[in-house]
């Protein structure tokens, strides 16, 4: 009876190696995707931090702000190779409503609610993340975008 059982079940030697060989590619793919997600999250955070640095400079410089200087500061802080920075303004806007909506207006005009328009600067930065795993590069290459609308006065 015991001999018959060994013939049906076979030897158990090497089954762990076979199981590992079957599971290892899936395990490596999961680890690779998790690492890639971490790199993408880091790139998104770096993009947000660089726009925040430009916001801080624009706020401190107030009406003496230079769009080229803000662009330079954001680009220096952004160490991503293919990041794109756009700074527009300063321009005057009226902010009204809930949620707040901006309406461009001449700086010498008065807003519809009787207040003076504010001077604003718009900072935008984009970055297209390229995945580290070649198999995923055809599926997912997200473009991250951060924008800031800064009041100067």
TrEMBL record:
List, alphabetically, the Pfam families matched.
TadE
Task: Tell me which InterPro entries the record gives.
Answer: TadE-like_dom (IPR012495)
Keywords attached to this entry: Membrane, Transmembrane, Transmembrane helix
Source taxon at top rank: Bacteria
Write out the transmembrane intervals: 20-41
Every TadE-like domain range: 14-54
Name the UniProt record assigns to this protein: TadE-like domain-containing protein
Phylogenetic placement of the source organism:
Bacteria, Pseudomonadati, Pseudomonadota, Alphaproteobacteria, Rhodospirillales
């Amino acid at each position: 009876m015991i001999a018959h059982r060994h013939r049906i079940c076979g030897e158990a030697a090497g089954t762990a190696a076979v199981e590992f060989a079957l599971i290892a590619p899936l395990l490596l793919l999961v680890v690779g995707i998790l690492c890639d997600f971490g790199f993408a999250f880091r790139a998104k955070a770096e993009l947000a931090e660089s726009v925040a640095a430009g916001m801080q400079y624009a706020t401190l410089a107030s009406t003496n702000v230079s769009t080229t200087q803000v662009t330079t500061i954001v680009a220096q802080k952004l160490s991503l190779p293919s990041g794109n920075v756009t700074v527009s303004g300063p321009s005057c806007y009226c902010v009204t409503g809930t949620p707040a909506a901006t309406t461009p207006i001449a700086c010498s005009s008065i807003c519809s609610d009787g207040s003076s328009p504010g001077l604003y600067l718009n900072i935008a930065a984009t970055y297209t993340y390229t995945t580290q795993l070649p198999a995923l590069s055809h599926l997912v290459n997200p473009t991250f975008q951060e924008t800031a609308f800064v009041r100067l006065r």
